[in-house]
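User: Structure please.
Assistant: Input sequence and predicted structure:
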Amino acid sequence: MGFLVAVIAREAVVARSSVPARTRLAAQRIGEYLTVWRKLQGLTAEQVADRAGMSRDTLRKLEHGEVTVGFDVFLNVARVLGTLDRAVEALDPYETDLGRARADQALPKRVRR
């Protein structure tokens, strides 16, 4: 059993070291922001994890900035905290100067609702 634990720990270190430092920092900041949103709403980690359909341990990993959690975990927690739409809009290229300037040249017209 000790050997297996050592192998898993070594793999985690290798995986962590292959993630660029800026990516790890961004994951930590996002985790901190989600924690603050949760606390501002007076929700416990258990409540958020339950509403997002995940274990408390998985939520803890996200809140601590572990990059191994799935994208769906982030999206579900953002949904529970009411920040999903804001996260999606933050990545909308049509809301940037570059996106608007290049949209007519490189991409088909965007369908607006």
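Residues 85 and 91 are 10 Å apart (CA to CA).
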